[in-house]
Amino acid sequence: MIDGFYAVDYQVHSYCSHDGRASIAEQCARAVAIGLEEIGFSEHKDFDPSDPVVNHFDYEAYMQEIEKARREWGDRLKIRAGVEIDYQIWFEDQIGTYLDAHPFDFVIGSVHYVGGTMLMTPEYNRARTAEAAYRDYFKAVRDSVASGLFDILGHLEYANRRGVSAWGPYQTVRYRDALEDLLALVIAQGTVLEINTAGLHQNIGMTYPHADTVALYASMGGTRISIGSDAHHPDQLAHAYAQAVSIVRASGLSHICTFEHRQLLPVPLLPVTAFTAGPEES
Ligand SMILES: [Zn+2]
Fold it and tell me: What is the pTM of this model?
């Protein structure tokens, strides 16, 4: 429990990701120490052959480490084996084939590149206005959701990581039409919307997506939220979890989503007193 709530982190990396800075065992030890009930590893899996780290992720080695961690920590911690796929439209077939052959507990689809260029870098921004920089990003995210390949939409509005320094403060209201169109599709597809707290430790001062966007999603009828810290190091695990929980609750939502074998398992977000008095405990 963290602040009395069932505590889950569903965006966690280890050395199985090219940029991870801890072992799976180290992340699990930290998870138990800070009171997480459940940890969802979301290792990077990329498909772009021009990316030097494209072959870093090793599915068999990953699953072996997960099994080992479950033997050691499984009585105190639910350990889920997920993946964060870097989505680019031209790899859709490859991603689908890969996911058919490699079972995971959950699959996050994330957009880091648009048109082959990393978001909001000078190279990306050169040919665009601020408006186009964001709208092209939202279009790519829309494509990722429309593909139907993913359980969770990863870090929506991640464009702000570099976008805010490049283009100034982000204004949800400016892109409201694009967001409404995207979120309507997210809801129709049943895709889970991730609240990623990395923006709070990257000094962007907002989660991905912004709390206003979560509220917009809920006002449109969306109910499926997951929470992740994007921890690449144990110090970042469950970062600002209580803040993410308050965003969920402020939007009038009462559950967060977890997964096993890609089956969605909603967990009530209730204060511990109500949670222990719930029907499952009686
Ligand atoms: Zn990511």
Answer: 0.94
